[in-house]
Write a structure and sequence with these properties.
The chain has about 700 residues and is mostly helical. The protein folds into three domains: about 15-60, no CATH class; about 70-340, Serine Threonine Protein Phosphatase 5, Tetratricopeptide repeat (Alpha Horseshoe); about 355-550, no CATH class. It is built from 27 helices and twelve strands. It has a two-stranded antiparallel ribbon with strand order 1-10. A two-stranded antiparallel sheet has the order 2-3. A two-stranded antiparallel sheet has the order 4-7. The longest helix has 26 residues, at about 195-220.
């Protein structure tokens, strides 16, 4: 039998290592022989001598070449050779050990999953680096996301980047390297069954596709890492160039196509495997990738006409191709079919207690539950590494009776949507408030008392802004606000539901230095309705949930968008209307005909495009979709150069509170559509070209 591999700390004491070796020998003596080379009757002193000799050899080594390491990372990140000796997952000394058995190979597979970027975290730029959320300066002044949103991105140490190690959250090229190592070595475990090998290979291919996609969406053209470059290759081989976006997307689609047939449609072992990849997830990634390259940022963008490699090769096509939308249509349809076949459907709240609740309350819980109900059928892919409780504490308004400045530490309550998000939602008639012929848009900031018809949205008689009245159900399910009903949280009666009291000095308003909403709104959609807040510093009971990376409503709206852009406007209505129906709204054609000052808007490609964009921003609010959608639509400059508006949260009275004030400014330049590559990485590889504007 082989001696125990020495630990990476080559200065380990011999007696510690000998104890480890003896333990391993005793373990093997208890086991049945698995292979002829396993020597069960080896004397302990002989085995110890073998191990000690091997330890001494390791102690004399300064480096050890591993045949499977790629040196491409060396050029991409600008790190010296010595940093790349130790490249395998933690507690694995060499590649041979990583694939010696099924169990060790499965641990390596888990390592591939561990590279997934955080989803419910401020390190996810899509959550707080856009314009959906604004956090008061006392809490967020050191956040990289806040710096990006205010125009402070830098090429020296790019904030929240994933290319290289300069300013990066994580280097995803390392993840790609390990995906390739896994695929090159998965044939080695002697006890791995064939069906498991096929599934694991498919998972690795998917993760490889996802990491390429994440980098492409962030940086545009990237080097495709099809396989690891051998360490013996010359310098020219590792000084890679960037590949055009269209080629990267094509490669992502190829990997997904290879993975889909070998992946399960659903996770059967829900106790151990929830969060692992299924065929609908892989199909959804393919659809997203093809939608991204079909969108205006990468499809006929004349701004990138001169964006070429050192050899003159164009990296982003300046010529529009409608065929890209056709391919996206096919990919979206495939993803939806696989999702339906696996039992995915739009979530509806069905708790038995709902029989005693109003239809309005149940509808709001259906909307919230599509996010917060654990592993509900609408969630196609949930992030198992999500920090669901942390994000909920940030989004939770302080509603528990008896809260004071001294007893409110259990929730931060600073995850606040700016005024433009509140204005984004439709009126109760299902059209934008500035289009609704029945909505008093000009006086939307004025105050009015809520009547009995609003009893499940706003406490009757409470004076609030007209902006908070006569809105669609998703407004009330997604946002908390002064006077608004916050159902649940220990109360199980419609008549006794808590309300938010958001003025300064009140339990939900400014009572301390940082735990308050900058805008006067809260992201209620992210908070599970049965969480409970108490009047103690540790008094918050929250149920975590996997943050949704892909859910069915997202696919429906992607499909509608692709259909419309490919000239099939009429076919898109069904998929938008499915989402609107769950939200308690009539279909787009009927709603615009009945209430809009532009009644024929849904009948044109351009008009429906605007509707679909808004529908996505409403339905997927706070889920990290808007940040990337605005970029691929090439509309970020339209939204992200504006003041951040809020209610006057210093106001203690209704008259003072309901005044709109600026609390900051979003800044965005055309260069910000793509992340910069760090200067150190550019210096390390002369074949790389920087993104335009940086």
């Amino acid at each position: 039998m082989k001696p125990v591999r020495p630990e990476r700390i080559q200065g380990a004491h011999e007696h510690n290592y000998i104890a480890l070796c003896v333990g391993k020998l005793k373990k093997y003596k208890r086991m049945k022989p698995a292979r002829p080379e396993r020597i069960r009757d080896m004397h302990e002193h002989d085995y110890i001598a073998l191990c000690v000799n091997k330890l001494k050899i390791y102690k004399r080594m300064k480096t050890r070449l591993i045949r499977y390491i790629i040196t491409i990372i060396l050029i991409l990140t600008g790190i010296s050779c010595g940093d790349y000796v130790d490249v395998v997952p933690d507690n694995i000394a060499v590649i041979e050990d990583a694939f010696e058995t099924r169990d060790s190979a499965e641990r390596f597979l888990a390592t591939l999953y561990s590279y997934l970027p955080p989803f419910a975290s401020i390190n996810n730029p899509a959550l707080a680096a856009g314009d959906e959320i604004a956090v008061n300066d006392r809490a967020s002044r050191n956040w990289a996301a806040r710096t990006i949103a205010r125009g402070g991105q830098t090429v020296v140490g790019p904030r929240l980047g994933y290319w290289g190690n300069s300013g990066s959250v994580s280097n995803l090229f390392i993840a790609l390297r390990d995906c390739n190592i896994f695929l090159e070595n998965i044939d080695k475990p002697f006890d791995l069954r064939d069906f498991e090998k096929k599934r694991w290979m498919a998972e690795a291919k998917f993760l490889k596709a996802y990491y390429h996609f994440y980098l492409m969406r962030m940086y545009g053209p990237i080097p495709i890492v099809r396989e690891n470059i051998d360490v013996s290759s010359g310098v020219d081989a590792v000084r890679v160039s960037r590949d055009p976006v269209d080629e990267v997307a094509r490669y992502i689609a190829e990997l997904c196509d290879e993975a889909i047939p070998e992946l399960p449609p659903v996770i059967e072992n829900t106790g151990l495997e929830l969060g692992r990849i299924t065929s609908p997830i892989a199909a959804a990634l393919k659809a997203r990738a093809l939608m991204t390259v079909a969108s205006p940022l990468f499809n006929g963008n004349a701004d990138y006409a001169d964006f070429v490699n050192k050899d003159g090769k164009a990296l982003i096509s300046a010529t529009y191709e409608e065929a890209k939308w056709t391919r996206a249509v096919e990919a979206c349809r495939e993803a939806i079919d696989l999702a339906h076949g696996a039992g995915h459907s739009l979530y509806e709240f069905t708790d038995a207690r709902a029989g005693g609740w109003s239809d309005t309350t149940v509808l709001k819980l259906s909307i919230r539950g599509s996010i917060t109900e654990r592993w509900n059928n609408e969630v196609i892919w949930g992030g198992s590494n999500s920090a669901g409780t942390t994000l909920q504490r940030w989004a939770q308004a302080k509603i528990a009776p008896g809260l004071t400045a001294e007893t409110r530490e259990s929730t931060q309550s600073w995850w606040s949507p700016p005024m433009r998000i509140a204005e984004m939602f439709y009126s109760e008639n299902g059209v934008p408030i500035d289009e609704d012929v029945n909505y008093d848009y000009a006086d939307r900031y004025k105050v009015a008392a809520a009547d009995a018809e609003h009893q499940h949205y706003v406490r009757p008689g409470f004076e609030t802004a007209k902006l908070n009245l006569n809105r669609e159900p998703r407004f009330y399910a997604s946002l908390g606000f002064d006077g608004g009903i916050w159902f649940g949280h220990g109360q199980t009666s419609d008549d006794d539901a808590w309300i938010v009291e958001g003025k300064k000095g009140e339990r939900g308003g400014r009572l301390d230095a940082s735990r308050w909403s900058l805008s006067g709104y809260w992201a209620k959609k992210l908070v599970y309705y049965e969480n409970v807040q108490r009047t103690t510093s540790s008094g918050y009971t929250a149920r975590a949930y996997p943050f949704p990376i892909v859910r069915l409503a997202d696919l429906y709206l992607l499909y509608a968008e692709a259909l419309n852009e490919s000239g099939k406007t009429g076919a898109a209505y069904e998929w938008i209307d499915r989402v609107r129906d769950r939200a308690g709204l009539d279909g787009v054609v009927a709603s615009w005909a009945a209430a809009s000052n532009n009644p024929t808007k849904p009948t044109t490609k351009e008009g429906l495009r605007d509707i679909i964009h808004r529908e996505r921003m409403i339905e997927l609010v706070f889920e990290g979709r808007r940040f990337w959608d605005l970029r691929r639509w090439k509309r970020a400059s339209e939204f992200l150069n504006s003041d951040i508006l809020a209610w006057n949260t210093e106001g203690e009275t209704t008259a003072d509170y309901y005044n709109v004030i600026p609390v900051g400014t979003y800044k965005f330049l055309n260069r910000d559509y793509l992340w910069p590559i760090a200067e150190t990485d550019m210096i390390a590889n002369a074949n790389l070209v920087q993104n335009p504007g940086w």
